[in-house]
Amino acid sequence: MLKRSIITIVLALIAGNILYTQYQTYSENPWTRDGQVRAYIIQVTPRVTGQVTHISVADNSHVKEGDLLFEIDSSMYKASLNKALAAEKQAIALVKKAKNEEARAVKLEKRTPGSVPVLTLNNLANAVETAVANQESAAAMVEEAKLNLEYTKVYAPTDGYITNFNLREGSHVIANNPVVALIDEDSFWIEGFFKETDLQGVDPGDKAYVTLLMQNDVVLEGEIKSLGYGISKTDGSTGNTLLPNVNPNFQWIRLAQRIPIKIKLNSVPEGVQLRVGTTASVQIIK
């Protein structure tokens, strides 16, 4: 009986020691499974309106900066450029005409003082200024038409991954309306949501270990880049009837809020592909 009691006490002490050790480890190195892979997502937006005539990429494909994504019908923009060039030529001709008339009047006035009224000379000078201004405006219209023609070809602004690509040839795109999502491949980070009670002593630069749910046999190393300075307030926000929203809670339980922490990975091994929105576990080494 005594032997059985001793064994029970020893096992209880071992179990208690294990629990205490695990608690100390968790307190010193907080851990959460509430983490996500994040990256900057660029909304590729056409600068001009028109029908899509050619597509050079497929859904879920990798692209390099400067790769052609798709083309918009350029016929209308070519016509606009030709029209702008013609208007510029006309403006240049009007400048020459105005300068010739002014020069002729000035010469006549010098040869025969008083032969040309001062008001006429002033009007001729103003006509030259107006013609020059019209020429500059026409040149600006040509530049705009050239840009619009260039914008009919849409290129990748950075290296990354095309995803949820539903554009098809014949589709009509509208200027300044996003049509393609491009994930910047050089911007991936891990965002972990830790309880506020676990963040004492946690600082930027601390080491972190990340395990992806989709590849839990690989442990990624990184470091904390920043800790969030605020989260959205739920209680007290205005409801539909202009009354405050107040969530019920238990008086004897205070739930710890979760603060987002950004973690930059030091490197990503070959064969590991980060995907935005996937789940990750994060452990911080203070």
What does this entry look like structurally?
By secondary structure, the protein is of the alpha+beta class. It is 34% helix and 28% strand. It has 3 helices and 14 strands. A 6-stranded antiparallel beta barrel has the order 1-10-13-12-11-14. Strand 11 and strand 12 (215-227) form a beta hairpin. Helix 2 packs antiparallel against helix 3 (118-150). The chain is elongated. The two termini are 47 Å apart. 16% of the residues are buried. The mean pLDDT is 87.
Short descriptors:
3 helices, 34% helix, elongated, MFP_Efflux_Pump, alpha+beta, transmembrane helix, four-stranded antiparallel beta sheet, six-stranded antiparallel beta barrel, 286 residues, membrane
C-alpha-based Rg, rounded: 35 Å
| Shape, principal axes of CA atoms | elongated
Q: Largest sheet, described in full?
A: 6 strands, antiparallel, barrel
What structural class do helix, strand and pairing data support?
alpha+beta
What is the average per-residue confidence, as pLDDT, rounded to a whole number? 87
Give unreliable regions as ranges: none
**DSSP helix count?**
3
Instruction: Please indicate the percent range of residues in DSSP E strands (runs of 2 or more).
Output: 25-35%
Main β-sheet, spatial strand arrangement: 1-10-13-12-11-14
Head-to-tail CA distance between termini: 47 Å
Overall helicity? 25-40%
- Can you write the helix and strand succession as a string? HEEEEEHHEEEEEEEEE
**What is the strand tally?**
14
